[in-house]
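User: Design a sequence. Structure:
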């Protein structure tokens, strides 16, 4: 393959000058999935230079709007409800102007993006992932509350701003039309705020009347429906920067021809396939390409040809702890199927006759129920633990505390660093407190049984047969290490 000779980009004073004009490439996945007559294209929005996402386009326009409508200065605070990428884009741009930024992000936001925000000195407020926008703990309501408490603060809300639509109508859509030479049959776009798909569909349908627009959301997202049929059964998803449990006001559903819901497993598996093809896009891009492939199969059945364009929103580099982590994918049952089959084979061959004792686990590191949350966090962070067992003075197992749970409660100001861990631990057995499912795992437990246990759990506490003493903690990673032996 020969490289295209491009005109070198001149030196610029500001990375913002390079936002947009992202390339379109052909994906070879159409060949791998045997899709004759299908030309599968991808617009690489993750090559935007500020945050590595399509939100760079939106953030620039929203800040411009805010500066026109308000007298912004060094004492201005921007309150940004976001799923992650918009917050990063706005924070990077706001820092250059001297504005303070507070972002409100869901609990599922990756630690990679949280650390990026922290490195910019951004104040971070974590909110429940699937809470309804009208709930008091939602990012929108918390932003409104702080608006009344922080002088010279404004809310940057992409879910209600028409500029989120206009930037794609005026710029992104024009780029696409020029790049495809006006020839496009299907446009596939992930939906969160609705700005991207509304702006693109409105402009491109006016230029390409027969264009079909496909909207993509996570399996348990409720954007198309508008609300959850039963809030008590609301389920979460792990793909970020896509999906919602309400229909944003700026989304024009009349422009959408077909909706696809894509599972987490298909999203992460397809994103990893894209990485194998040299396209370093994030999980939501996996959702989009997975939906495009499914729709392409429908077209083939109708014996038609089609040029399909997918919009790949953000970079895989923002997901080092999830998408790029084999361990995390394995722990969350999101490993790509072909790799899983290989691992399953290895498990059967290598674990035959072996038990937990053969893993040679180190002695358990434990903590007492009256220890402070801050002490538990220090132990887990210094030793790279995700959880730590809680035992009483007689070394009897009481339960465990989770790193992510404690951090979430601290971030939400539900817990304080000096609180005893007993107030926030997951308890085993009878008594008050939050219940955690418990299955006895002993040194004699066959590894095949332990592997089955890990189909629904991320770790196990190893005890004696009477569950009197905590002997160790075993995770799926311990098994994974053995698979690779």
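Assistant: Done.
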């Amino acid at each position: 393959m020969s490289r295209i000779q491009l005109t070198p980009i001149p030196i610029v004073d500001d990375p913002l000058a390079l936002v947009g004009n992202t390339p379109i490439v052909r994906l070879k996945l159409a060949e791998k999935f045997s899709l004759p007559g299908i030309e599968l294209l991808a617009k690489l929005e993750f090559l935007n230079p500020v945050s590595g996402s399509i939100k760079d386009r939106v953030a620039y326009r929203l800040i411009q709007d805010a500066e026109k409508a308000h007298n912004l200065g060094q004492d201005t605070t921007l309150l940004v409800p976001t799923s992650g990428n918009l917050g990063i884009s706005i924070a990077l741009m706001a820092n250059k102007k001297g504005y303070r930024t507070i972002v409100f992000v869901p609990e599922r936001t990756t630690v990679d993006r949280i650390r990026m925000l922290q490195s910019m000195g951004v104040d971070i407020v974590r909110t429940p992932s699937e809470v309804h926008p009208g709930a008091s703990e939602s990012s929108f309501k918390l932003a409104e509350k702080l608006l009344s408490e922080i002088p010279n603060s404004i809310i940057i809300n992409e879910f209600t701003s028409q500029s989120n639509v206009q930037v794609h109508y005026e710029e992104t859509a024009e780029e696409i039309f020029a790049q495809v030479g006006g020839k496009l049959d299907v446009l596939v776009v992930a939906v969160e705020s609705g700005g991207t798909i509304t702006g693109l569909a409105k402009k491109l349908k006016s230029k390409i009347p027969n264009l079909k627009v496909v909207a993509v959301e996570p399996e348990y997202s409720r954007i198309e429906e508008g609300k959850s049929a039963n809030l008590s059964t609301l389920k979460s998803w792990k793909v970020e920067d896509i999906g919602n449990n309400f229909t944003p006001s700026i989304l024009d559903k009349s422009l959408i021809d077909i909706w696809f819901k894509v599972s987490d497993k298909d999203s992460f598996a397809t994103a990893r396939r894209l990485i194998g093809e040299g396209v370093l896009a994030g999980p939501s891009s996996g959702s989009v390409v997975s939906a495009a492939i499914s729709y392409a199969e429908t077209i083939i059945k109708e014996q038609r040809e089609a040029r399909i364009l997918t919009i790949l929103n953000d970079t895989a580099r923002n997901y080092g702890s999830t998408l790029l982590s084999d361990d995390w994918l394995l722990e969350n049952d999101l490993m790509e199927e072909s790799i899983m089959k290989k691992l399953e084979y290895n498990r059967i061959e290598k674990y035959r006759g072996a038990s937990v004792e053969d893993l040679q686990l180190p002695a358990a590191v434990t903590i007492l129920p009256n220890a402070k949350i801050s002490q538990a966090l220090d132990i887990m962070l210094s030793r790279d633990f995700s959880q730590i067992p809680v035992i009483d003075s007689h070394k009897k197992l009481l339960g465990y505390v989770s790193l992510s749970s404690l951090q979430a409660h601290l971030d939400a100001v539900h817990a304080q660093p000096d609180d005893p861990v007993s107030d926030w631990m997951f308890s085993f057995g009878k008594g008050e407190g939050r219940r955690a499912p418990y299955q006895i795992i002993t040194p004699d437990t066959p590894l095949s049984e332990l592997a089955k246990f890990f189909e629904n759990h991320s770790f196990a506490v190893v005890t004696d047969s009477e569950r009197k003493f905590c002997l160790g903690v075993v995770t799926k990673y311990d098994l994974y290490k053995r698979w690779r032996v």
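The longest strand covers residues 38-44. The first helix runs from residue 29 to 32.
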